[in-house]
Design brief:
Radius of gyration: 18 Å
Oligomer: single chain
Helix content: 40-55%
Strand content: 15-25%
Strand order of the largest sheet: 2-1-3-6-7
CATH superfamily of the largest domain: Response regulator
Largest sheet: 5 strands, parallel
Distance between the termini: 25 Å
Number of domains: 2
Order of helices and strands: EHEHEEEHEHEHEEEEHEHHEE
Structural class: alpha/beta
Length: about 220
């Protein structure tokens, strides 16, 4: 799963991120209202861990924004404000769960798995483009019903484009979305080119009728 941690305590964010990465998740962080809002607009996440008290604004306002954008994402509120009013407000605004600080990391992992299971029961969260089906929760990709083996980064790249069919994506934005914060500070995108080359080859060899087309001087676009 791709998880966004919205938390202004750097030590807590570091501990949470390390634990979730160990569980196999892709993790990004935002320490204030503005950066969290920007990341939610630009990128797609499977789960957002959302603190209420943030520099620059309220996590509840971010929650309202998530729902206004109609993004399919699980939200778990994580806050030291263990008041019934905050809990009720968050759940009424569409949060999937509420976890009060302090908490055990094992409980955090269990809550994430729980909301993911409920999401799968509520509907089909697979992504479809042409004859390609991608299952975010299982990490599997199928072409005409036949599974295609992709590496983790190849899967993440394909998932990113299947959320944005027909959109022209800058290579720096793509690199930051897949490899994380600060990757845009490099001018060398050879790591991206190599992963993209392998992904495009696997799609072609499997008979996929979609194509991630290179747009010279800018980036890529998914054509279906």
């Amino acid at each position: 799963m791709k998880i966004l941690i919205v938390e202004d305590d750097p030590s807590l964010m570091e501990v949470m991120a390390a634990a979730l990465k160990k569980d196999g998740h892709t993790v990004e962080g935002a320490a204030d209202f503005s950066s969290a809002s920007q990341k939610m607009e630009l990128y797609a996440y499977d789960c957002i861990l959302l603190d209420i008290m943030l520099p620059g604004g309220s996590g509840l306002d971010l929650l309202s924004k998530i729902k206004d954008m109609d993004k399919r994402v699980n939200v778990i509120i994580i806050s030291a404000k263990d008041s019934i009013d905050d809990k009720v407000s968050g759940l009424e605004l569409g949060a999937d769960d509420y976890l009060a600080k302090p908490f055990h990391l094992a409980e955090l992992s269990a809550r994430i798995r729980s909301v993911a299971r409920r999401s799968r029961m509520d509907g089909d969260f697979s992504l479809k483009a042409g004859n390609v089906t991608l299952e975010p929760e299982t990490g599997r990709v199928f072409v005409d019903g036949r599974q295609v083996e992709l590496l983790k980064k190849e899967f993440s790249i394909l998932e990113y484009f299947m959320h944005r069919p027909g959109h022209l994506v800058d290579k720096a934005v793509l690199a930051e979305a897949i490899w994380g914060d600060h990757i845009d500070q490099t001018d060398d995108f050879q790591f991206l080119y190599a992963q993209m080359k392998n992904l495009r080859k696997k799609l072609q060899e499997s008979g996929a009728d979609i194509e991630i087309k290179a747009v010279y001087g800018f980036g890529y676009k998914l054509l279906a």
